Structures are given as structure tokens and as C-alpha cells.
Amino acid sequence: HADAAMFTAKRNGRNRYQFYSKEIEARLLIKKHLENAVANQGENHGFEVHYQPKIDVIHNRIIGVEALVRWRNQDNKIINPIQFIPLAEETGLIIPLGELILKQACEQAYQWETSGHGIGVAVNISLVQFEHKDFFNTVTQIIEQSKISPHLIELEITESVLAKDTEKARKLILKLQEFGVKVALDDFGTGYSSLAYIKDFTFDVLKIDQSFVKNTLENKKDQAIIFAIIQMAKGLDLKLVAEGVETKEHSDFLLNLGCNVMQGYYYSKPVIAKEIDKLLQEFSAVAPAKN
Ligand code: C2E
Ligand code: MG
Ligand code: MG
Ligand code: MG
């Protein structure tokens, strides 16, 4: 028995070791690429921003897009952010990477604006970025340099940002909005979800998390939650976006409840900017209001 136990321990240990070494290898590779991307200003080293449209299904028009970063590796394989954003956050590399993403998104937004499709572009912001002392200056500088109208840029933050230092976050959000950008609360309902946040903060947009949308057709609880979020948003005059709309049934259900702006695979996956150009021909486009 002792031998068997020893054998099991050794085997597990070895597997674990192999698992760790594989993981460490992958992390080092990603870290190296992040560092290269960051060191070579102007070159993106395979980091590219894709865009997913947000559609007002009543008017059949694109009201904006969400910028979502991808990494195209040496084999031309697309690596999703879940595989490198957490690492970038841990190592602090999210700061320069975030700048690179915001720059790319603002430059693209400016191209859309000057070509007559002034759609809003939403950019995800990590807690680490939001908390960085230079965050406000960086954001405003990038926006000014790209010449994009600030009201066309929307920053998506999550509830984690609000929980950390609520008063500081509240002030920073107001300052950003005074500068002219919009602020959206992403993944609503999954985080700390204090209703006080909704009351005390002045969000421009609330994004219903996809986890509620996913099961909404079968799960009565998810239905009730979505219903409540929609009623609340109406009462507070908050714009709503439903994430993760994958089917016509999802879309119909949400529309019936009074949510008409949708984002999800049913309408389009995140795609490169050129594909958005095509979609802009299909759907009509409309710019968000300045206020
Ligand atoms: P998120 O901001 O909540 O973005 C929505 C995610 O849902 C995206 O995943 C999008 O591709 C995916 N999605 C959209 N429609 C559907 C659908 O119908 N069904 C399903 N199952 N999924 C859908 P993605 O691009 O893999 O990004 C994952 C997360 O990584 C994002 O969640 C965001 O938190 C983070 N992220 C992505 N890009 C950036 C970035 O540029 N900067 C930062 N800081 N974080 C980013
Ligand atoms: Mg988002
Ligand atoms: Mg989200
Ligand atoms: Mg999410």
C-alpha cells in the first residue's frame, strides 16, 4: 500500500510538474510578446483589435461597436483575451497594452467618424488600468491625439472598479464624463452588484451580463433578473445593452421586455474593422448623442 501511495504521489507530482512547466512556458511566451509589443512603439506585434456591433434592433441600425483585443500569434492563430489579459494584469503589462488597444480603437473610431459613420466605440478597461495614477491623462491624451470626438468613445468598466475605492472611482468617472467620454458598467449582475452603485454613479450605459441572457429561455430566475434590470434601467433612464444574444429567441425575448440594443453572435461575432465597414452598409448607422 505504501508503495502504491508513493507511486501515486510521484505520478501526480510529475504530472503536476509537467502541467506547471507547460503553463509557465506559455506564460513566458505571452509575456515576451507583450513586452515586445510594448517596447516597439508603433508596432502592435500581433495584438489586434476586433469589433463587435451593438445593434438597435427596433431601428435595425448599428449604434456602436465594442473593441475586443486578440493576439494573432506566429502561426496566424487567434488567441483570445482570456488567455493573456489576466497575465497582462498580473504583470502590469496591461498598462502599455491597454494604451496600445485604446490607441488602435481611437484611430479606427476616427476613421469611421470621418467617413460619415460616427459610431461609438467601447473599450474595456481593467481594474489595474483604472487605478493607475496616469489613467485620466493617458486616456485624454490618446483621445486628443487621435482627433476622435470624445463622446464617441465609451469606457467599459466592471463592478470591481467601484468596490475598491468607491469615492475615488466616482470622482474619476465624473471627470472622464466631463471630458466627454461615456462610461458603461459591463457584466452587470455578476460582480458585487450593489444597487447603491447604480444610484450613486452616473453611468451612461448598463450592460446586462451574458450569463443571464444565456439561460433566459429556460430559467425563470434569469428571466426575473433580466426583467428587473430592464425595469430598473427604464426608471433610472439608463441605456441598456444585452450581451451574449445568440439566437432569435433571445432577441425576441429581450425585445418583448423592452431591451432593444443587443450584442451577440446572433448579429455578429467580433470581426476586423473592414467587416464592420460592410455591416455598416447592411445596417444603417447612427452616432450616439453628445449628451
Ligand atoms: P467582455 O467585455 O464582457 O466582452 C464580451 C465577451 O463576450 C467577448 O469575449 C465577446 O467575444 C463575447 N461574446 C460576444 N457575443 C457573444 C455571444 O453571443 N455568445 C458568447 N458566448 N460570447 C459572446 P472576448 O473577446 O473573448 O473577451 C473576453 C473578456 O476579455 C471581455 O469580456 C473583457 O473583460 C476582456 N477583454 C477583451 N478585450 C479587452 C481589452 O481590450 N482590454 C481589457 N482590459 N480587457 C479586454
Ligand atoms: Mg466589455
Ligand atoms: Mg461584458
Ligand atoms: Mg465579460
From TrEMBL:
<protein>
    <submittedName>
        <fullName>EAL domain-containing protein</fullName>
    </submittedName>
</protein>
